[in-house]
Structure formats: C-alpha cells, structure tokens
Amino acid sequence: MDKLQTHATVLIVPGLREHVPQHWQTLLEAKLSKVRSVPPLEADKLSCAARVDAIQRELEQIDGPVILVAHSAGVLMVAHWAAVYSRPIKGALLAAPPDLQASWPEGYPTPESLRANGWDPLPTGRLPFPSIIAASSNDHLASLEAACHLAEGWGSQLVNLGAVGHLNPASGYGEWVRAEDFIRELDY
C-alpha cells in the first residue's frame, strides 16, 4: 500500500470512544507516512483538561509542521487545546463535532457530566490556524446548524458531507477517503 506523503506530521485526536479498529481515523493512520495519534487515557477519561494535556504531550514529540485531524469530542479537545496552548499548526480537519447543547442518546455522557469535567463552556473565539469542519446532515450528536454555528465562531470552513451520520463504523464509515483530500488541502 502506498502511503500518503505529507510535508506535515498528522496528529490524530480521537473522540471519547478512542481507537476503534474499523474507524476511518484508524484506517487513515495506516495510510499516512508521517502520523501520530493521541493515545487513550488510562485515568480521568472524561476530564477535558487531561485530554488537552494529552494532545500537548504528543505535540511536544513532533518536530516541524503539524496538521490536526480530530473526530467527534476530539474536535472539542482541539478547541480547548487552542485556547490554552500556543504552537504553529498548519491546519485542522475537524470531523463530526458534537453539540454540547444537544440531547445525546443513551450511552453517551450527559451535559451535566461534561460540564462537571470542564467541556462546557466551549471556546468560541477564532481558531489560530486554518480549519475545515466536516459535518453531516443527519448526525445524532449534532445538527448541521450547530456545526455551522461552530464553524462561524471558529473561523472554519464548513463542508456539508450530506447524510453520513456521525462518521463512525455504525454510520458505515470505515474508510473515509475524503479525509485524505482534506489533508492534502491543508498540507499546501
């Protein structure tokens, strides 16, 4: 298999479900020539601050330019990271950001538990790097309108992917080849 050659190192920031073998971000990681992934937390798994610190630890291991690729709650982690830390980032692909104001299905954290663990309020200022928010018209964790609101606040380009659910294996994603296209766009 030919690896996608990039100038920048891609840092993958998984969501709360972390690494899933058939998830598009796990499959993408295997295709990239320069890639790292934020490892799963062993403790404080719902702590936003612990997640942000994990991103920073990985970034400290990378020399040169970086592109962030985040999924779901990983998108929110990136926003919180950008509000605390400063490092040049070439760009970010922010896929399927959840809406902290929405009611999520059973099995997901409640708004109260997220607030108690530092996720809310979400940083609302412009991100200090170019970013693309890839959102779905039928995501069970966020409406397209909510994703549009995030894109406007963060100064991100919004890409409506159509009816692709939450871009996870349950939605049929597996392989998501458009992620590679967005990485190429950010790696100019």
Automatic annotation (TrEMBL):
GO terms for molecular function: hydrolase activity. InterPro entries: AB_hydrolase_fold, RBBP9/YdeN. Keywords: Hydrolase. It comes from the Bacteria. Pfam families: Ser_hydrolase. This is Serine hydrolase family protein. The lineage of its organism: Bacteria, Pseudomonadati, Pseudomonadota, Gammaproteobacteria, Pseudomonadales.
